Amino acid sequence: MKVDKNKVKRILLISLTNLGDIILTTPVLEKLSSEYPNAEIDVVTSSVGVDIFGPHPKVVKVVEYKKTKSLSNRLRFIGELRLAKYDMVVDLKNSLVPYLAGARYKPGLLSGLSQIAKKESSQHKVFEHLSKLRAFGVKNLDDFNFYVPTTDKDRIFVQELLQDAKHMKKVVICPGAKSNIKRWNIEKYAELSDMLVSELGCKVYVSGNKDDKDIIDKFMTFAKESTENICGKTTIGALAELMKYSSLVITNDSAPLHIASAAGVPTIALFGPTDEAEYGPLSKKSRILKPLMECRPCGKSLCFTGMDLGCILQIPVKEVFLAAKEILGGQADGKDNH
Q1: Is the dihedral of CA 139, 141, 142, 145 positive or negative?
Q2: In the chain, which residues have pLDDT < 50?
Q3: 119, 128 in Cβ contact below 8 A?
Q4: Which residues, in sequence order, are bridge partners of residue 151?
Q5: What is the reported pLDDT for 75?
Q6: Which helix (H) or strand (E) element contains residue 260?
Q7: What letter does residue 105 receive in the DSSP assignment?
Q8: In the prediction, which pLDDT does 332 show?
Q9: Burial annotation 11-42 (CB, 10 A radius, 16+ → b, else e)
Q10: According to the model, what pLDDT value does residue 14 have?
Q11: What are the strands, taking DSSP E only, across the chain?
């Protein structure tokens, strides 16, 4: 479609709901900001996304979408969007909202369905999201940036955290994940951390949100070497800032993996049932470790073998350590990744 940029004054971006997925949609916001510098942008997202999109200089309003079965609430939501009179709607959820909101510029319904049908299973989600912009004539989609807001408070917190590790290689370990079968064994994480400290002289920070507290408490029980527990102490921005100063992030397939991609830090990503081609790390020097099983990636929430924690447990500690040693070995002592 041919878009007259002079007529695009208001844009609605419909993003996703989970933190990791939201991070992977921020390149779309950045691309829209550069392609339409004179347009105001509103974003529809979940409560988690408010903290991500809200601080963006081009975002005027963040609309928190709450799932509802009520027809009246859905009609009210659509009515509010129609009253806003958006010139363009970019929908990353593949819904009917662009057609109901009455926007001048929106992807053709048939072409949108065709794009979904032709989706390449091996395409990374970032590029899948960016590909939606082709319908609006946006090019150069291979060149993109993430957006994770960082405040002065975040930066001060991180600088204080780094005070006793100025001349050490810094490694951030994120052992949590919403799904049990996406979690590598916590005892193995603790053993790996001990090896990073004792054999490579690293400063290890173990991170997670409030939902990861029990997991990380177990980690701290098993770990024998000194480790900095920052679980529940960091905002998303502070974690991204810490990662920028780190030499390596080691994580399961979870939101911190995508924050690490946004921070541009080398990452070791441990994958179980998820397709690493769609959700793997995008930073340079990153490594993907996965079990050698023909049934993966299955994308299932439960392992058909009956294993409570799934195939990811097959990844040995030594393999992860050797990958970490290889990545860290390419950097001189005390060199930060910032």
Answers
A1: positive
A2: 330-338
A3: yes
A4: none
A5: 87
A6: helix 255-263
A7: B
A8: 37
A9: bbbbbbeebbbbbbbbbbbbbbbebbeebbbb
A10: 96
A11: 10-14, 40-45, 59-64, 88-91, 170-174, 203-206, 228-229, 248-252, 267-270, 287-289
